[in-house]
C-alpha cells in the first residue's frame, strides 16, 4: 500500500509528469472533438495526419528551444533567435534564387553554409557582448532581435523571396522513413547536444556557470568561454530552424519568418522544467515543452476555436501547466484540500487570474 | 522632467525663429527670382510614407514617386520607418518648409490631432492615403484616399455567388483571416459574409487567422483539410496565405483551383502567377498604385476645389484569363 503510494508520488512529482499529462489531455480532447484526430494514413509513400503535422511543425521550435535551454542554463537569455531564423533563411533563399539551376544540390549546400556561417558570426557577436564586454544578456541579444529583423528585410529587399528548389524544400517538408525529415534533423541536433553536454563535462560546466559564474571561474572553469559558446550554439540552432521555416513555405519573408519564436522557445524551456535563474537544465523537458506548444497551436486550428479567444485559451493552458508544475503552488494546494488528485480546481485557478 | 520643461519652449522658439528666417530667406529668394519662371508654378507635396515593410508598400512608394514626376509636382518624400514620432517630425518639417500640400499614410490611427492642427493653422491642406486616422475633428484633413476593404470582400463573395448559382447542395467554405483585429481582416470578412448571404447554400464551415503570412496560411489549412473532409471553397484574406494553403492542399492529394476553388485578395505578383497558372480562381485587387489619383487630388485641393471626404482607390478583380493578360505588365 505505502509502496504504491510512494510510487504514485514519485510519478506525480517527476519533473516531466505534468507536461506529459497536459499533452495527453490535449490529444484526448482533440480525439473526443474529432475521433479521426489521431488517425494516421499512408499518402504518397509517407505518413499523413494531424500528429505528423505536429511533429513536423514543432521541429524548428525544438531546435531553437535546444539552443535557448543551454543559454538559459548559464543564467542568460537569447532574444535574437527569431531574427536569426529570418536572417539565415533569407540568406539561403537569396543565394538559391540566384542560382541558374535552383535544384542543384551544390548550390543549396553553399546556401546552407552561407546562412549558417552568418548566423555563427552573429551568435559570436552576442557571445562577445555578453561574455567579454559583460552586457546583460537580455539587452545584448535585444540589439540583434530588433536590428536583425531589419537586416533580414534588407537581404530580401522588403519583399517575400519565393524559390523553387527541390533539395531546399526537402528540409521543411521532405520525408525520411515515411516521417517528416525535419523532425529527424531536430532529434539529431538534440542527440548531439545531449551527448556533448551529458557525456562530457560540458553540461556540468554550463550548469556550474549558471549557478555561480564567479565561483566557477575561481574553481578553474573558463566561464567566459562557456558563456560565449552557448550563444554560438544557440545561433547555429536558430539558423537550421530558419532553414526549416523558409523551406516549409519555399519562400523567405524577412518580416514574418521566426516572428516571436524566441518567446515560444523560452516558454518551451520553462515548461520543460529548466530554471530561468540558470544552474540546471533538461533537454528532454525542452523537447516536450516544444511539442506541447505546437500541439496547443494545432488544437486551436483543429477545434476551430475562434481567433479572438484562441490567445486566451492558450494563456489559460500555459498558466495551468506552469502552476501545477510549481512546487510552491502544489504544496499550498495540497494542504487545502483532500489528498485525492483532481486537476479540475487547478484549471479554475488560472482562469480567475487571466483577466486580471 | 524639469529640464525638459525649460528646454522645450526654447527649442520651439528656435524652431519658430528658424522657420521665420527660412521664410524670409525664401521670400527674398522669391523676390530675386521673379524673372526666372523655372518652377514657380510647381506645386510642392510633402509625403510621409509608413516604411518599406512589404512588396505592396514598395510598389505604393514607386507609384507615388512616378506619378509626382509625371504630374510635374515637386515631391518631398520621407520614410517614417514604421515610427509615428518620425512621421510627426516629418510633417512638422513640411510645415516649416511651407509645402503646398501634405500627404501621408499614418503608421497608427491615433495621436494625430496636435500635428494636424498645426498644419491646419499653417493653412496647408492634408490628404491621408491608404490608412485613416481616428481624429474626431474631420476638418483636420481634406480627404482620405484608400482601398475599401469591405468592398474587396464583397467582390470576392459576389463572384462566388455567381459561380455557385447552379449549386444544388451545400457549398462548404473555409476562410483564412488576416491578423486578428486588423482593419483589412475585419472588413474583408464582413464584406464576404454579406455577399454570400445571398445564397443560403454557401456556408463558412471554418474560419481561422493565418496572420497574413504564408506559413500561417499553410499551417491552418493543413488542419482545415484534416478536420473537414469536404471543402469546396477557400477564401483567403490575402495572396500570401492562399499561397501557403496551396502547399497544404497539394500535400493532401487535392488539386488547388479544381477540387477546391480558391479566392484571395491583393493581386501581388506571386498571387497573380498562381492565378494565371490555374491554381487560384479569383483575386480581388487591393491596389497600391494610388499615385496618379493622389496627384490629381493634390492639384484639386491646391486650387481650393471641393473634394469628397472619402475616395476609393481604383481597383479591379481578376479571373484566370484576365491574370494571364495582366501578368506581364504588373508592377508588383
Briefly, what is this?
Chain A has 356 residues and is mainly alpha-helical.
Describe the overall structure:
The complex is a heterodimer of chains A (356) and B (332). Helix content of chain A is 72%, strand content 4%. Chain A is mainly alpha-helical. Chain A has a two-stranded antiparallel ribbon. In chain A, strand 1 (41-43) and strand 2 form a beta hairpin. In chain B, helix 6 links the parallel strand 6 and strand 7. In chain B, helix 5 (149-163) packs parallel to helix 6 (183-196). The radius of gyration of chain B is 24 Å and the shape is elongated. At the A-B interface, helix 3, helix 11, helix 13 and helix 14 of A face helix 2, strand 7, helix 7 and helix 8 of B.
Please list the strands of the largest sheet of chain B in the order they lie side by side: 2-1-3-4-5-11
Taking strands numbered 1, 2, ... along the chain, how are they ordered across the largest sheet of chain A? 1-2
Specify the biggest β-sheet of chain B.
Answer: 6 strands, parallel
Shape of chain A: globular
The CATH architecture of chain A comes to Orthogonal Bundle
DSSP, total strands of chain B: 12
Major beta sheet summary of chain A: 2 strands, antiparallel
Give average pLDDT of chain B, whole number: 85
Given the structure, what is the number of helices of chain A? 16
Write the layout of secondary structure elements.
The complex is a heterodimer of chains A (356) and B (332).
Chain A (H helix, E strand, L loop, with lengths): L1 H11 L4 H17 L7 E3 L2 E3 L1 H24 L7 H17 L7 H28 L4 H19 L4 E3 L3 H8 L1 E2 L2 E2 H18 L3 H10 L1 H6 L4 H27 L1 E3 L7 H11 L11 H20 L4 H19 L1 H10 L7 H10 L3
Antiparallel strand pairs in A: 1-2, 3-6, 4-5
Chain B lengths: L1 H31 L11 E6 L5 H17 L2 E6 L4 H13 L4 E4 L8 H9 L4 E4 L13 E4 L2 H15 L7 E7 L5 H14 L5 E8 L4 H14 L5 E4 L2 H13 L9 E6 L2 H8 L5 E4 L5 H12 L7 E3 L4 E3 H7 L6
Parallel strand pairs in B: 1-2, 1-3, 3-4, 4-5, 5-11, 6-7, 6-8, 8-9, 9-10
Antiparallel strand pairs in B: 10-12
Helix pairs in contact in B: 2-10, 5-6, 7-8, 9-11
Amino acid at each position: 500500500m505505502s509502496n504504491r503510494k510512494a510510487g504514485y508520488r514519485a510519478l506525480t512529482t517527476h519533473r516531466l509528469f505534468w507536461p506529459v499529462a497536459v499533452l495527453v489531455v490535449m490529444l484526448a480532447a482533440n480525439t473526443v472533438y474529432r475521433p479521426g484526430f489521431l488517425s494516421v494514413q499512408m499518402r504518397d509513400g509517407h505518413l499523413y495526419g494531424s500528429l505528423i503535422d505536429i511533429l513536423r511543425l514543432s521541429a524548428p521550435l525544438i531546435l531553437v528551444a535546444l539552443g535557448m535551454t543551454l543559454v538559459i542554463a548559464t543564467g542568460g537569455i537569447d532574444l535574437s533567435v527569431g531574427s536569426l531564423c529570418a536572417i539565415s533563411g533569407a540568406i539561403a533563399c537569396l543565394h538559391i534564387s540566384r542560382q541558374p539551376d535552383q535544384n542543384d544540390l551544390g548550390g543549396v549546400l553553399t546556401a546552407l553554409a552561407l546562412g549558417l556561417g552568418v548566423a555563427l558570426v552573429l551568435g559570436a557577436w552576442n557571445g562577445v557582448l555578453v561574455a567579454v564586454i559583460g552586457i546583460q544578456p537580455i539587452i545584448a541579444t535585444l540589439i540583434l532581435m530588433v536590428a536583425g529583423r531589419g537586416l533580414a528585410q534588407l537581404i530580401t529587399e522588403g519583399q517575400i523571396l519565393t524559390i523553387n528548389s527541390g533539395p531546399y524544400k526537402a528540409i521543411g517538408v521532405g520525408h525520411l522513413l515515411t516521417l517528416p525529415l525535419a523532425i529527424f534533423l531536430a532529434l539529431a541536433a538534440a542527440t548531439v547536444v545531449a551527448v556533448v553536454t551529458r557525456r562530457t563535462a560540458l553540461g556540468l560546466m554550463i550548469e556550474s556557470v549558471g549557478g555561480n559564474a564567479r565561483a566557477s571561474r575561481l574553481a578553474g572553469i573558463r566561464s567566459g568561454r562557456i558563456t560565449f559558446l552557448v550563444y554560438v550554439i544557440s545561433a547555429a540552432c536558430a539558423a537550421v530552424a530558419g532553414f526549416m521555416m523558409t523551406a516549409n513555405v519555399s519562400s523567405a519573408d524577412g518580416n514574418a519568418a521566426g516572428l516571436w519564436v524566441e518567446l515560444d522557445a523560452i516558454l518551451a524551456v520553462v515548461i520543460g522544467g529548466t530554471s530561468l535563474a540558470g544552474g540546471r537544465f533538461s533537454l528532454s523537458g525542452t523537447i516536450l515543452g516544444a511539442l506541447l506548444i505546437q500541439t496547443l497551436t494545432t488544437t486551436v486550428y483543429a477545434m476551430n476555436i475562434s481567433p479572438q479567444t484562441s490567445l486566451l485559451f492558450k494563456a489559460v493552458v500555459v498558466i495551468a501547466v506552469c502552476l501545477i508544475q510549481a512546487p510552491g503552488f502544489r504544496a499550498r494546494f495540497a494542504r487545502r484540500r483532500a489528498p485525492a488528485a483532481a486537476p479540475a480546481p487547478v484549471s479554475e485557478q488560472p482562469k480567475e487570474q487571466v483577466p486580471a | 522632467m524639469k529640464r525638459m520643461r525649460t528646454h522645450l519652449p526654447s527649442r520651439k522658439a528656435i524652431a519658430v525663429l528658424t522657420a521665420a528666417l527660412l521664410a524670409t530667406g525664401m521670400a527674398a529668394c522669391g523676390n530675386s527670382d521673379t524673372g526666372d519662371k523655372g518652377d514657380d508654378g510647381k506645386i510642392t507635396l510633402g509625403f510621409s510614407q509608413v516604411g518599406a515593410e512589404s512588396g505592396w508598400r514598395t510598389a505604393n512608394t514607386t507609384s507615388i514617386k512616378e506619378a509626382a514626376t509625371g504630374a510635374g509636382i515637386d515631391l518631398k518624400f520621407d520614410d517614417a520607418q514604421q515610427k509615428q514620432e518620425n512621421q510627426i517630425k516629418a510633417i512638422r518639417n513640411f510645415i516649416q518648409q511651407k509645402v503646398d500640400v501634405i500627404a501621408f499614410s499614418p503608421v497608427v490611427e491615433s495621436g494625430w490631432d496636435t500635428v494636424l492642427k498645426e498644419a491646419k493653422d499653417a493653412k496647408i491642406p492634408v490628404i491621408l492615403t491608404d490608412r485613416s486616422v481616428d481624429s474626431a475633428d474631420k476638418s483636420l484633413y481634406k480627404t482620405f484616399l484608400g482601398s475599401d476593404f469591405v468592398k474587396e470582400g464583397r467582390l470576392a463573395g459576389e463572384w462566388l455567388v455567381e459561380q455557385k448559382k447552379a449549386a444544388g447542395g451545400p457549398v462548404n467554405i473555409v476562410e483564412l483571416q488576416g491578423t486578428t483585429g486588423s482593419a483589412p481582416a475585419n472588413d474583408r470578412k464582413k464584406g464576404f459574409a454579406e455577399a454570400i448571404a445571398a445564397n443560403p447554400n454557401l456556408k463558412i464551415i471554418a474560419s481561422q487567422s493565418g496572420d497574413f503570412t504564408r506559413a500561417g496560411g499553410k499551417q491552418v489549412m493543413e488542419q482545415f483539410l484534416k478536420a473537414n473532409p469536404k471543402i469546396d471553397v477557400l477564401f483567403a484574406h490575402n495572396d500570401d496565405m492562399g499561397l501557403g494553403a496551396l502547399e497544404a492542399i497539394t500535400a493532401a492529394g487535392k488539386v488547388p483551383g479544381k477540387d477546391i476553388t480558391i479566392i484571395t485578395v491583393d493581386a501581388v505578383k506571386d498571387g497573380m502567377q498562381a492565378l494565371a497558372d490555374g491554381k487560384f480562381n479569383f483575386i480581388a485587387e487591393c491596389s497600391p498604385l494610388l499615385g496618379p489619383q493622389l496627384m490629381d487630388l493634390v492639384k484639386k485641393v491646391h486650387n481650393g476645389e471641393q473634394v469628397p471626404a472619402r475616395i476609393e482607390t481604383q481597383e479591379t478583380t481578376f479571373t484566370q484569363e484576365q491574370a494571364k493578360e495582366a501578368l506581364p505588365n504588373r508592377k508588383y
